[in-house]
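S1.2 Input.
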Amino acid sequence: MEKRELCVADIEKQAGVSQSAVSHQLRTLRQLDLVRKQRRGRRIYYRIADGHVLSIMRDCLDHVEEKE
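S1.3 Output.
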């Protein structure tokens, strides 16, 4: 999660959902300023907006894992 930028195809593979579903969710996350994008050639790469958002996401994942 904290590593890098990912393109839609990478996210699609990791999440196991369709390209259209990934694109739709990324659009929503961009509108909320939770992710940022950068075009490189024909691909657009997405990354978590900032350290604060990353911290919140880590806390959420930790909470979910505690429940299991």
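S1.4 Remarks. The mean pLDDT is 90.
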